[in-house]
Amino acid sequence: MTSGYRGRFAPSPTGPLHAGSLVAALACWLDARAHGGRWLVRIEDVDRPRCPPGMDEVILGQLAALGLLPDEAPVWQSRRGTLYQAALDRLIASGRAYGCACTRAEIAALAGPRPRHGELVYPGTCRRGTGGRPVRAWRLRVEGRIDWQDRRLGPQSQDLETEVGDFVLKRADGLWAYQLAVVVDDAAQGITDVVRGEDLADNTPRQIALQRALGLPTPRYLHTPLVLAPDGHKLSKQNGAQALDLADPPARLREAAMALGLPLPPVCASVGETLAAALALWPGRLEVSRF
């Protein structure tokens, strides 16, 4: 079977893959293969200060050991700044993006103590200009509510104006913001389906808003269940998630498959057999009600 399906796994190389990131990688690989599509890998290293040298190659090596090989050469966000600048220029020219002179302390004082995943809801202070103060960052002017459909979570909605505010496209330190980079790259790579962890679902309305502002297509979205740490929080590098022990790659794949609700038999002795067994079960997980 062939199709126009194009999916991607987009790890940030701030540390090696762990059990949680393997679940996301396996899910998007399975979804691409089940649809007869292509599976890509994008290294999201736009935040260079947080990415140890060589960690990108560590991650690519982990994926190879697990049999998760991309159908095209990987791309690195750190090499794509001209694409992001061109998108920002378009948004500025259309009036959708504007310069912001506010410091984080100033935003906190005006917005009140309402952090949203580490970000304060921006009150729109610089929408009408910076008053002669130098521009520190660039923001997208947001409007109203975004409604969207997730393939697992079902109907979703977020009021960008009240819940997020005008969000950053280019940071005060000159680095590109995740939201702009991922939208530009998904469009440039022709991504039709985004399969990723549920913790990133909150980003989707911002990305849809950017896609609409830039006249880009919106992919289908599927957000997978999270792997939780013993304290009940999402397993992540920030809370001490251990790097994958790849002494037994089929065992790691079986564990990831179990987290996705795919009960694989323990008799799968090789990476290829394990992936084939998971792929045979994946179509039964494609409906919202099945997850």
From TrEMBL:
Keywords: Aminoacyl-tRNA synthetase, ATP-binding, Ligase, Metal-binding, Nucleotide-binding, Protein biosynthesis, Zinc. Its cofactor is Zn(2+). ATP binds at K237. Binds 1 zinc ion per subunit. A motif ('HIGH' region) lies at residues 11-21. Its EC number is 6.1.1.-. It is an enzyme of class 6 (ligase). Pfam families: tRNA-synt_1c. SUPFAM superfamilies: Nucleotidylyl transferase. Zn(2+) binds at C100, C102, Y122, C126. PROSITE patterns: PROKAR_LIPOPROTEIN (PS51257). L-glutamate binds at R8, F9, A10, P11, S12, E44, Y178, R196. Residues 6-109, 162-243 form the Glutamyl/glutaminyl-tRNA synthetase class Ib catalytic domain. GO terms for molecular function: ligase activity. A motif ('KMSKS' region) lies at residues 234-238. It comes from the Bacteria. Catalyzes the tRNA-independent activation of glutamate in presence of ATP and the subsequent transfer of glutamate onto a tRNA(Asp). Glutamate is transferred on the 2-amino-5-(4,5-dihydroxy-2-cyclopenten-1-yl) moiety of the queuosine in the wobble position of the QUC anticodon. Belongs to the class-I aminoacyl-tRNA synthetase family. GluQ subfamily. This is Glutamyl-Q tRNA(Asp) synthetase. The lineage of its organism: Bacteria, Pseudomonadati, Pseudomonadota, Betaproteobacteria, Burkholderiales.
